[in-house]
């Protein structure tokens, strides 16, 4: 159930979006040790964002997971997603924040119930 929401002020065309979705899905699943079949990635491009007082390319992400987050993986997740954004959208890693949420099963719904 890991879900990654990405917001960027860079316009994202369909081809680049598809590449990011594929790469981020594989990365999140691998780093968290979860099946790709439960990973969801959302990309919101062209969102007005100011970071450090400028509208230069920037991004914000939120990753929610039931377990698997912690000091040993959080840095790896942050750097890997930042690298994908740098490669695909030319967003410098110094202009990217990511918030990581570890939630309990009862706080995440799926298939008409909770995990």
Description:
It is built from two helices and six strands; from the N terminus they run E-H-E-E-H-E-E-E. The chain has 115 residues and is of the alpha/beta class. The longest helix has 19 residues, at 14-32. It is globular. The protein starts with a strand and ends with a strand.
Draw up the topology in text:
Elements: E1 3-8, H1 14-32, E2 40-44, E3 59-65, H2 71-89, E4 96-102, E5 109-110, E6 113-114
Parallel strand pairs: 1-2, 3-4
Antiparallel strand pairs: 1-3, 5-6
Helix pairs in contact: 1-2
Family: Belongs to the MIF family.
Keywords: Cytokine, Isomerase, Secreted
EC number: 5.3.2.1, 5.3.3.12
Give a quick rundown of the structure.
The protein is of the alpha/beta class and 115 residues long. The chain contains two helices and six strands; from the N terminus they run βαββαβββ. The chain has a domain at 1-9 and 25-52 and 76-109: Macrophage Migration Inhibitory Factor (2-Layer Sandwich), CATH 3.30.429.10.
